[in-house]
Amino acid sequence: MQREDRRDFWFFLSPWIVGFTFFGAGPILAAVFLSFTDYSIFTRPHWVGLANYRELLFQDPLVPKALFNTLFYTVFAVPLGTFFSLMVALLLNQKVKGLPVWRTLYYLPTVVSGVAMGVLWRWIFNPEVGLLNTALRPLLQAFGLSDPKWLLDPHLAKPAYVLMSLWGIGGGMIIFLAGLQSIPKQLYEAAEIDGAGRFSQFRHVTLPLLSPVVFFSLTMGFIGSFQIFTQAYVMTGRGVDNSTLFYVLYLFDQAFRYFRMGYSSALAWVLFAIVLVITLVQFRLARRWVYYEGAAS
Amino acid sequence: MSADGHPRRILGRVLVYSVLAAVGTLMLLPFAWLVRSSLCDARAVVQPLEKLADFIPPTIHFENYREVFRAIPFFRYLLNTVIITVGVIVGSVLSSSLCAYAFAFCRVPYRKYLFYGVLATMMLPGIVTMVPTFILFRELGWIDTFKPLIIPAFCGSPFAIFLFRQFFLTLPPALIEAARIDGATALQIYARIVMPLSRPVIVTVALFAFMGSWNNFMGPLIYLNSQEKWTLQLGLNSFKGQTADQLNLLMACTVMVLVPVVAAFFALQRYFIRGVALTGLKG
Asked: Engineering a disulfide at B201: which of A126, A184, B167, B216 sits with its beta carbon 3.0 to 4.6 angstroms away?
């Protein structure tokens, strides 16, 4: 029985093992090797030692630029997105009528693809006739301000991306809503008997029990938004003064426009390291604020 | 307790619904703007709105949609997208359910930790594997074919494996045990007992695979060079470049690319929302 189980286990798991070998671990290791080479795919890889890393860290001015742009976007988009999706989830958790309708309404934008989203929002951000400035104009004129140029203004392009990302808070909202609904009612009843007010209940029951979900959402959000690509590719490319040159956009250009496979592998490897460090730091910080029920196990 | 009629309570309710309605309007407005733009003529679409009533175009031009078919090989793109998407759906459902079966029913030591290991690979940024995978597919001669977009789906995805496993664990163990005692092999149990009972999760995984494949842009962008192999997403992106003075057509094309995903979402949202909700809950 045991032996049969073991054989079945590896047999059933084989698709994943094959996939992980060829599309996961293998490529990651290959990326390490490639990052030490000069390789244009048309010739054989040529070993250059640390030259790619030297160029990336000390010589290429676009790398810090791309890192800054990506960090800027991530640092605003992820926490704001998490905050607003949590707020909407809390509102929907107030025993509102027509919950499925609201939920559908808020979730709908998240099914829109990166390309369609980019095409649509580029049009919304159009300074002269776009939806956003059309809606804001009365307000702007009241304060005597001129129309913002959004994607065409190096200072506003990244905030515009952050704004656009908030259109997709529906995904986080669904996750939070499910988390909220899984909190046992008795805990609130007990807190009420102990004389806890609504805010105190939120602070001492809701937040701790929801914190693992918030943590998960933040972690995956960071990993995802660090890889922003499609919308940027479609909407602005590198943007005015490289203001929307995001890291993966740059990596993509190096790989598939200039065919610098070695250099782009070094870029990818550095991205991997950054994401890994940020994730580990998040896990470390999580010990202070994330509450796991029965944490001893 | 029965403070429902309390004025402050009512005010609170009003506030909740007002905020919900306001945010809901913000969520829907881009869609309304998209549809509106797709029905304008080429001139009206770039006309600034003077008053709210201008939001409804002076004349409605449904023929914009027909125009799109003339401007780009829409049906070719659609066919390519459908072929790839069907492949991805079949691959994801099949491979992920097999892997999940291993984690749910094969009694081997440490399988829980192996499962966590598979889940942990979700944290790998996909972009790191992009260049070496491209080189691999190039060596295999798969560039400008659908294979690089379909074959990896047959290798299971951690998220889909997770969804299947969670569902499998809710099936009554006695059922599997009985089949085992009757001498059924694992493959028979998988095919005749487990899968037929797993319709909800199959639909969920298929739906996610559909959305992911339909909306995939970077994959086709890297692997598909010749235009007759392009997908809708690539077609839409290139159409964007040719239509500086025909924004109405671009928006009509966008609507058509969106309709299938929006329709699938509405038709199957129960499954969809369950899947998304599960992501946040620990196994």
From this structure: B167
Tokens 């023929």, located at residue = B63
> Do the beta carbons of residue B27 and residue A167 sit within 8 Å?
yes
Burial class (CB in 10 A: 0-12, 13-18, 19+), B176: buried
B55 inside 8 A of chain A by CB:
no
Each residue of A227-265: pLDDT tens digit?
999 999 999 999 999 999 999 999 999 999 999 999 999
CB B29 within 8 A of CB A131: yes
Tens digit of each residue's pLDDT (9 = 90 or more) over A268-295: 999 989 999 998 998 898 888 888 765 5
Domain count, chain A: 1
Residues in A touching B269 (Cβ below 8 Å): 104, 107
Task: Name beta bridge partners: A38.
Answer: A46
Give B160-187 as a DSSP string: HHHHHHHHHTTS-HHHHHHHHHTT--HH
Q: Do B91 and B276 touch, CB atoms closer than 8 A?
A: no
**Is A31 in Cβ contact with B106 (below 8 Å)?**
no
ipTM of this complex prediction, to 2 decimal places: 0.90
**Contact indicator for B282, A219 with CB cutoff of 8 Å:** no
Interface of B with A in 62-121 (CB under 8 A): 94-95, 98-99, 101-103, 106-108, 111, 118, 121
| Angle of the B74-105 helix axis to the B232-242 helix axis, nearest 10 | 140
Q: Is residue A220 part of a domain?
A: yes
